[in-house]
Automatic annotation (TrEMBL), chain A:
GO molecular function: penicillin binding; peptidoglycan L,D-transpeptidase activity; serine-type D-Ala-D-Ala carboxypeptidase activity
One Pfam family from the record: PBP_dimer
TM segment ranges: 20-37
InterPro entries for the chain: Beta-lactam/transpept, Beta-lactam/transpept-like, PBP_dimer, PBP_dimer_sf, PCN-bd_Tpept, Penicillin-binding_protein_2
Subcellular location(s) per record: Cell membrane; Membrane
Entry protein name: Peptidoglycan glycosyltransferase
Chain ranges of the Penicillin-binding protein transpeptidase domain: 269-603
GO cellular component, one term: plasma membrane
Domain Penicillin-binding protein dimerisation: start-end pairs: 63-236
SUPFAM superfamilies with a match to the protein in the record: beta-lactamase/transpeptidase-like, Penicillin binding protein dimerisation domain
UniProt-listed GO biological process terms: cell wall organization; peptidoglycan biosynthetic process; proteolysis; regulation of cell shape
From TrEMBL, chain B:
Record has Transferase as a keyword: yes
Lineage of origin: Bacteria, Pseudomonadati, Pseudomonadota, Alphaproteobacteria, Rhodobacterales
UniProt main location, coarse: membrane
Family recorded in the similarity comment: Belongs to the SEDS family. MrdB/RodA subfamily.
Organism encoding this protein: Paracoccus kondratievae
Protein known as: Peptidoglycan glycosyltransferase MrdB
Gene Ontology MF annotations: lipid-linked peptidoglycan transporter activity; peptidoglycan glycosyltransferase activity
Segments traversing the membrane: 23-44, 56-76, 82-101, 145-163, 175-207, 286-307, 319-340, 352-370
Membrane topology: Multi-pass membrane protein
Length: 647, 380
């Protein structure tokens, strides 16, 4: 169809008009776009630039290396080891099954583990690194690094992890570290952001927990550029963290090791104090456990075994455990009597084997009685009646006051977990606790460390140290922090007549060294290490009158958990006391037979600075001692040049 | 104009046509495409094989197609316009029946080794048809209701099919593109006023329909509208893209962060950085200078097309040039407005720059038709 010229012209004019209108509209829209561009890129550029930087620059914390814990000689008892681990990132790996199959040629991995890891990787985002294996040997680690081209997405990493080179020796006193739990975080106000790092370890119990702040150190930081998925692209700057403080303890690794070995599989506790300064040289609870297992994540069966063990390996019996101190408490009663002026060292009481008080008969352990007996001999023979008589005259309040003066029923502040206060009972205590009046029978029981009296092995050691020195020695566990020695306080005098203390010490000496002393067999022969001590056997059950009439059943015939606790406290050398030791063997039977030899061996090891010459032992004991030594597997001495701090 | 006219008026023939091409347009298109290659190279982190390379290949093929099409006499396009329209409608029906689902909508049609988006083809084909219609219709009849109804139906038929995919963006694009042709053809302004009034009423109805049984849009489309109205409401969800795009764009500042230095795009904060959001990468790396320059290049392309349309006395050629240029304008202005947060995100590419084979090739072919109109314009 041909168009006429007129039509063409009209059409052109119409189109021109409309195109110009369109042009105006389009110009308007383009102007709007240009203005918006200008507003965003020129006027508000700074705001957007800030948002953009905030998007892509992130601060990543560098976990600080945990402070080392040393023994008194500088041996590392809690250190850090390199933990070599391997992570896998799906995005980079491509075919993860193939990569894992190749990885399994280097790292042994069960089918189950491999399946679990695959599952985990599939669950996580493609750019999140998933832990495939940790605690690799150096050989495995380096061969993975070497084979990196065949293992896309596999990243070998190394980090520090806590390690306890002395395994179980220090398990209770040091405690252990573990991954930070939500519960841990909930307990801390304003938690340090480093705690939220996935691999971070926090002190859970013991010194590790109590000195967490000093040991933790300061986190470093890296400024990194990340992409939208949070994957690091490059590092912009780096500020190294600061390792936690090195804590030097008062403990002696070798003595601790010996003590631990000597206690063996008994359910027992031992504390060794340096009476001159209060240093805890060894503090051992037995049986023990390997804290490294907790750091690495203990397996369920292992944990169950620890929980179900009737000797309670996880409990720290040295400070958490409290026991009736039995006859080891007699020094307290005696000193209370002497100080109150109720008796003099020469005052004698008659022991017919029992006393009749308030219609009840209180027996001496010796049914035949000890006859006329004075202070020193009452300790030597551990005569109960002497203390029954004394208790009636001096009263419980003064006994309790003396107990507290000597460190029983008082909480000793140490960086350890769940330190028990024990009980030094008096009238007020019983009213508050049971809402009952104090009975005279309670006093009699308390006078020989039974009844309501409870003391921890630590408190018994403190008591012994105070009797030995006459000073208010308090235990301490930290010797220096970062090389800065903790000051040793000038322990004040106890305000006890030195003559009275000497009487108590003489009694303890007689226990060991007189011809009829109850613990004579456990004495030290070497004159320069002459030892004084006191046995204790505390009942864990009541002996009824009917039982007594039939004859008390010997411990051997009772089930383990109903046998008496065996206790022993001692110090040496007698003339110039250096160490005080307390030993409690739960359900061990008699103090003199079970606890005393252990205490003696520990004391001798401490005094000799290693295994003592056999001549230090009475001849009759030497064969037995040798036999005990041969069964021990002591960690070889490694004082000099043992692996120093790894930064 | 019919075949016979070409024997009457002086029109270049054979290889001499190459001299009469709209060369400034060719250079502008090439320049914009080169900016696209550069940006695709940049957002891939320097990996030419990822996007820039394939894009260059398609550009080369597209350019060849453009030249080939520009040699085709203009009457051919008018002759096939109705046929191409029918084919496109059939393809749209086919895609509805057996299309490939992508991004929550059916858009792809897989025919052996070729994947085609019929909606892309439709954009060109129905512009041809409308231009042919108004070329055929006597000028004095264009505003008569019956003669207005026919092109409206021609527009609404494919639009309805595209909307069923559902692809709201392309549907709007089709309506707007058709509207431009009708507007240029001289349809009375009263009709446009009426349509705008109806649209306003319709939008209100759509928004009101949300949450009722007769909900007119998908929930994700409603969400995009929400996000548009208040991008802060969901910064990590649907609003994330827009917020990140705006950060990228704004942080470019006057001169940008430098080639391949854009942190937003390089670090993957930008979504779809190689397709719908490529303008933000450009704005981030080359700043206002770069972004505004691209805008000006687009305006120049538009201007040369419009000038070509104004000087072309063939009504069909003139209208189809306006239709194609108008669609091109809609493309880039909607994309830019979207990434700058002036319109709801609806997934439209930046013409010639965004990665995408089909749209690039079809656009170049459309420009080929524009060139054909230019080359074969009647001369007296």
């Amino acid at each position: 169809m041909r168009k006429s010229e007129r039509e063409v012209v009209e059409s052109s004019r119409l189109i021109t008009r409309r195109v110009l209108m369109l042009g105006v509209i389009q110009a308007g829209i383009v102007s709007a776009l240009g203005l918006k561009l200008r507003s965003m890129q020129i006027e508000h550029a700074d705001e957007y630039r800030m948002l953009s930087d905030g998007n892509s620059i992130k601060i990543r914390l560098l976990p600080p290396a945990r402070g080392l814990i040393l023994d008194r000689n500088g041996t590392i008892i809690a250190g850090n080891e390199q933990n070599y681990r391997v992570t896998l990132t799906r995005e980079e790996a491509g075919d993860i099954s193939a990569v894992i199959a190749r990885l399994r040629r280097i790292i042994p991995m069960s089918d189950r583990q491999a399946a679990d890891i695959l599952e985990e990787i599939r669950k996580r985002s493609a750019v999140t690194p998933v832990l495939v294996a940790d605690r690799l040997s150096w050989d495995e680690f380096s061969s993975i690094a070497l084979n990196a081209p065949a293992l896309p997405g596999v990243t070998p990493e190394s980090g520090l992890s806590r390690s306890y080179p002395r395994a179980g020796d220090f398990a209770h006193v040091l405690g252990y570290v573990g991954p930070v739990s939500d519960y841990d975080l909930s307990k801390i106000e304003n938690p340090d952001p480093v705690l939220r790092l996935p691999e971070f370890q926090l002190g859970k119990v013991g010194l590790e927990a109590k000195m967490e702040e000093a040991l933790r150190g300061k986190a470093g930081a890296r400024r990194v550029e990340v992409n939208s998925a949070g994957r690091e692209m490059r590092e912009l700057s780096r500020q190294e963290g600061q390792q936690g403080a090195t804590v030097q303890t008062t403990l002696d690794a070798e003595l601790q090791n010996f003590t631990s070995q000597r206690l063996g599989s008994e359910s027992a506790a031992a504390v060794v104090l340096d009476v001159t300064n209060g240093d805890i040289v060894a503090i051992c609870s037995s049986p023990t456990f390997d804290p490294n297992k907790f750091v690495r994540g203990i397996s369920a069966p292992d944990y169950r075994a620890l929980m179900e063990h009737d000797h309670r390996p996880l409990a720290d019996k040295t400070v958490q455990g409290v026991y009736p101190p039995g006859s080891t408490f007699k020094m307290v009663t005696m000193l209370a009597g002497l100080e109150a002026g109720v008796i003099t060292p020469g005052t004698r009481f008659y022991c017919p084997g029992y006393v009749q008080v308030a219609g009840r008969r209180f027996h001496c352990w010796s049914r035949g009685g000890h006859g006329m007996i004075d202070a020193v001999h009452s300790l030597e023979h551990s005569c109960d009646v002497y203390y029954y008589e004394l208790a009636q005259r001096v009263g419980i309040d003064r006994i309790a006051a003396m107990a507290r003066k000597l460190g029983i029923g008082v909480r000793h502040d140490l960086p350890m977990s769940a330190i028990a206060e024990g009980i030094a009972p008096d009238r007020a205590w019983k009213r508050a606790r049971y809402d009952q009046e104090w009975q005279i029978g309670d006093s009699l029981n308390a006078s020989i460390g039974q009844g309501y009296v409870l003391a921890s092995p630590l408190q018994l050691a403190v008591m012994t140290a105070r009797v030995a020195t006459g000073r208010a020695v308090a235990p301490r566990l930290v010797r220096a922090i970062d090389g800065q020695a903790e000051a040793v306080p000038d322990w004040p005098e106890l305000d006890i007549n030195p003559l009275h203390l000497r009487t108590a010490r003489a009694g303890m000496d007689a226990v060991m060294n007189s011809s009829r002393g109850t613990a004579r067999r456990a004495r030290i022969l070497a004159a320069e290490w002459r030892m004084a001590g006191k046995t204790g056997t505390s009942q864990v059950r009541n002996i009824t009158a009917a039982e007594r009439a039939r004859g008390v059943i010997s411990n051997d015939q009772l089930p383990w958990n109903r046998r008496d606790h065996a206790l022993f406290v001692c110090f040496a050398p007698y003339e110039m006391p250096r160490y005080a030791v307390s030993v409690v063997v739960e359900h061990g039977g008699g103090g003199s037979a079970v606890a005393a030899p252990i205490a003696r061996d520990i004391l001798l090891f401490a005094l000799a600075g290693g295994l003592p010459p056999l001549t230090a032992y009475p001849e009759a004991e030497r064969a037995k001692v040798q036999e005990i030594w041969s069964r021990m597997s002591l960690t070889p001495s490694a004082r000099k040049g043992e692996g120093r701090a790894r930064a | 104009m019919g075949y016979l006219n070409y024997h009457v008026v002086q029109v270049p023939t054979g290889w001499r046509k190459i001299l009469h091409l709209n060369w400034p347009l060719v250079f502008l298109i090439t320049a914009v495409s080169c900016i696209g290659f550069l940006m695709l190279y940049s957002v891939s982190g320097g990996d030419i094989d990822r996007w820039a390379g394939p894009q260059m290949e398609r550009f080369a093929i597209g350019m060849v197609a453009m030249f080939a099409l520009s040699f085709v006499p203009i009457w051919f396009w008018r002759s096939i316009s109705v046929v191409s329209y029918v084919i496109c409608v059939l393809l749209l029906i086919l895609v509805e029946l057996m299309g490939h689902v992508g991004m929550g909508a059916q858009r792809w049609l897989v025919l052996g080794p070729i994947r085609i988006q019929p909606s892309e083809l439709t954009k060109v084909a129905f512009v041809l048809t409308l231009a042919a219609y108004y070329d055929w219709l006597p000028v004095e009849k264009v505003s008569r209701p019956l003669w207005v109804l026919i092109p409206v139906i021609l527009i609404l038929l494919p639009t309805g099919l595209v909307l069923m995919q559902p692809d709201l963006g392309t549907s709007i694009m089709l309506i707007a593109g058709g509207g431009i042709v009708m507007f240029a053809a001289g349809v009375s302004l009263w009709y446009f006023g009426a349509v705008i009034a109806i649209v306003v009423a319709g939008v209100t109805a759509v928004m009101e329909s949300r949450g009722t049984d007769w909900q007119l849009l998908h929930e994700y489309q409603f969400k995009r509208i929400d996000t548009f109205l208040d991008p802060g409401s969901d910064p990590l969800g649907a609003g994330y893209n827009i917020a990140q795009a705006q950060i990228a764009l704004g942080s470019g500042g006057w001169s940008g962060r430098g080639f391949m230095q854009g942190t937003q795009s390089r670090l993957n904060f930008l979504p779809e950085k190689h397709t719908d959001f490529i303008f933000t990468s450009l704005a981030e790396e080359f700043g206002f200078v770069g972004a505004f320059s691209l805008l000006m290049l687009y305006v120049l392309i538009l201007g040369f097309c419009m000038y070509s349309a104004l000087t072309n006395r063939d009504r069909f050629a003139s209208l189809l040039t306006i239709g194609i240029a108008g669609t091109f304008f809609l493309y880039f202005s909607i994309n830019m407005a979207t990434v700058m947060g002036m319109l709801p995100a609806k997934g439209s590419p930046l013409p010639l720059v965004s990665y995408g084979g089909t749209s690039l090739m079809i656009l170049l072919m459309a420009f080929g038709i524009v060139q054909s109109a230019h080359v074969h314009r009647p001369r007296s």
